[in-house]
């Protein structure tokens, strides 16, 4: 890997390198070489007095922002359709609830649950235990 000298980095900072390809080579080298990055930083420090100073940063920022071209935003106003509105959804839910109440769907649901509770069927655990008891009895008979 080729390392650049302090004077070469000073030429880079001052803009004495006219070829864009060479400038890109220097920039890419900075990403991969820590030694040259240190040389570059020391070159900046040595040329710090020669570099222009910004007296009022806010004015500099304003001037820079004026130079940036901005694209105008679309000023079309999106108007929601009536069925996309929250109020429509709440009204629809209320209407469906009243409709289900009037037709008796909710009362049928309570009847189904009470019918389900009336069935006296042993639980799954009881069925498994009964099955295991039967298996044990069969094994005992086979041993005799």
Secondary-structure map:
Elements: H1 6-14, H2 20-32, H3 34-46, H4 57-67, H5 86-103, H6 105-118, H7 124-143
User: What portion of the residues fall into strands of 2 or more residues?
Assistant: under 5%
Helicity level, as a percent range? Answer: 55-70%
| Alpha carbon gyration radius | 42 Å
- Low-confidence stretches at least 5 residues in length (pLDDT < 50)? none
Organism: Bacillus spongiae
Protein name: Zinc-finger domain-containing protein
Keywords: Membrane, Transmembrane, Transmembrane helix
Transmembrane segments: 87-106
How would you explain this protein's 3D organization?
With 144 residues, the chain is an all-alpha fold. It is built from seven helices and no strands. It has helices at 6-14, 20-32, 34-46, 57-67, 86-103, 105-118, 124-143. Helix 1 crosses helix 3 (34-46) and helix 2 crosses helix 3 (34-46). This is Zinc-finger domain-containing protein.
Attribute tags:
transmembrane, 144 residues, Zinc-finger domain-containing protein, transmembrane helix
Entry summary:
With about 140 residues, the chain is an all-alpha fold. About 70% of the residues lie in helices and about 0% in strands.
């Amino acid at each position: 890997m080729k390392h650049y000298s302090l004077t070469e980095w000073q030429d880079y900072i001052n803009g004495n390198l006219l070829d864009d390809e060479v400038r890109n080579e220097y920039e890419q080298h900075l990403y991969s070489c820590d030694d040259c990055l240190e040389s570059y930083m020391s070159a900046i420090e040595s040329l710090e007095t020669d570099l222009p100073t910004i007296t009022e940063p806010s004015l500099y920022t304003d001037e820079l922002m004026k130079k940036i071209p901005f694209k105008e935003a679309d000023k079309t106003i999106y108007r929601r359709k009536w069925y996309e509105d929250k109020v429509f959804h709440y009204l629809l839910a209320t209407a469906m609830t009243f409709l289900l109440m009037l037709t008796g769907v909710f009362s049928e649901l309570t009847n189904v649950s009470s019918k389900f509770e009336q069935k006296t069927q042993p639980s799954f655990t009881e069925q498994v235990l009964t099955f295991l008891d039967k298996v044990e009895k069969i094994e005992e008979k086979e041993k005799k």
